Amino acid sequence: MPKLVDHQERRETIARALWRVVDQHGWTRATMREVAREAGVSLGHLQHYFTSRTGLLTFAMELAAEQTGDRVTRGLAALDQPPHPRDVLRLVLAEMLPLRPEARASSRMSAAYVLEALHDPALRKQAGLGLRDGRAMVERLIRQAITQGQIAPDRDPDIETDLIVALTGFTPLLELEVIEPHAALAAIDQHLDRLFAEAS
Amino acid sequence: MPKLVDHQERRETIARALWRVVDQHGWTRATMREVAREAGVSLGHLQHYFTSRTGLLTFAMELAAEQTGDRVTRGLAALDQPPHPRDVLRLVLAEMLPLRPEARASSRMSAAYVLEALHDPALRKQAGLGLRDGRAMVERLIRQAITQGQIAPDRDPDIETDLIVALTGFTPLLELEVIEPHAALAAIDQHLDRLFAEAS
DNA sequence: ATGGTTACCATACGCCTGTATTATGTCATG
DNA sequence: CATGACATAATACAGGCGTATGGTAACCAT
Prior knowledge:
mainly alpha; DNA-binding; DNA-binding transcription factor activity (chains A, B); transcription cis-regulatory region binding (chains A, B)
């Protein structure tokens, strides 16, 4: 047996270097050489852990999704137990938007990933599944809130779900500084307040 | 004087070829050679009308924005005169989302453009201005509707504007077929109905 | 201690990129 | 009709890209 290294850890280190490159210089400059430079390793080293560029990108993307999930999970712990679904939705949206630096990197990653996925069947499938899962989670929350009387029963769960998920449309507005983070949060709060207004 | 050609027309033809490439194969494959091939001209020909790639991209982007504006203008003509602001907003949103093939190309163009703009000061300024203009137009509509009693006066115009603009967040959901066009339109209608519910 | 497996690195290959250069055709005018 | 401006084209160049290859160093089991 040779020298022992934690493969998963090495791959995560490299993936994080990729995030930084994407965050600072954009998806197009996320080349093997640039990522290796950012990670402080040689091109050969990087190749040892990621044979292909596509493999690196998908791995980094999955890791970013996990990371976002972890941020949400951590945020949930800070809420009342059990948390009000309104607060859960607010937290999820807040973590998906580029409001803080860490979230910004993930946000830029997934934006570029989606764009690339449109023309690559394999990526498309994965990206589609991810989005579908996210939407399904929101829908579950909303249906449950309706059942529990926190949302008025005359609200259509599908439509309300879509409206919530669509609020990720704040991303370009935030990125190009058309609106400030507090404005995005205010709008989200307003929307959620109305959704949960008429009951509980 | 030499042979006479309409420069603007030639540039538009090439820009449209760029749209097709971006629409079908993605921003990354929108190279000078690929666009020339799609346009059915030589690389030299393309270079004669666009010295640099950046120039081509910005021109094509501006043209796409104009085109979207024209679609909205044409749609306005089909509405009641004067049109109800609710219908205007619905039309604008519908034309910005990738619901029909022509709109899809423009949508993909601007998505890629915004992503590229994040890391290029010049593009960033232009993209920011475009988005700001769009938001300002929506805000004007909403403030006017409040003044005219079509929207309840206790609604905050800034927040309502942001919520409307954020509905462009349906784009990735539509692109990855997480939701169907009719669902996006239903959600938009629901949101607008509520916004315009309490008056007029 | 030695063999074999793994980590790591430098370099090379073929391809594609944006752009520059140069040549040729094509026309309206002096 | 010749001349000069423009349209179009072909080719060249330097650089960056993903990936493949070969070699060296480090380590553990035997």
